[in-house]
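A quick aside before the break. I want you to see a complete sequence-to-structure record at least once, exactly as it would be stored in a machine-readable document. Don't worry about memorizing anything.
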Amino acid sequence: MKIQSLTAAVAAAMLVLGLSACSKEDTEKAKSSMSEAAETVKQKTGEAVDAAGDMADDAADATGDAWDDTKDAASDMADDAGDAWDDTKDAVGDMADDAEDAADDAADAMGDAATDAADAAEDAADDAKDKMDEKMGN
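That is the input. The structure line, written in tokens, reads:
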């Protein structure tokens, strides 16, 4: 806008000077030059506006792409966290099952050992009774 205003002011000044001190041919040349200059300014201004619009469109596209990437990454992180939680629950369940199996095995082993000890004690008592009976003559 400032460029257009400046161009218009320069053009007006040149026309005034041209009309007051120049011939008709010089005036026409000046008008033609001013028209060309004004057209060039108009064209360059239009190109600048178009470029600014393109930049704004590109920025909006990049922002949308970045937002989509952020949502995708957040979704992937949530999925990974859910998978990790499921894996943790499975591992804890497996450990609990293993601990239960180990406790059952230990209880069975202790029961077997107690039975074996009781059998050994009974055998020893029987042997002692037999020896006593033998010594006593029975």
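Two observations worth writing down. Residues 2-136 form one domain. The mean pLDDT is 84. We'll return to this after the break.
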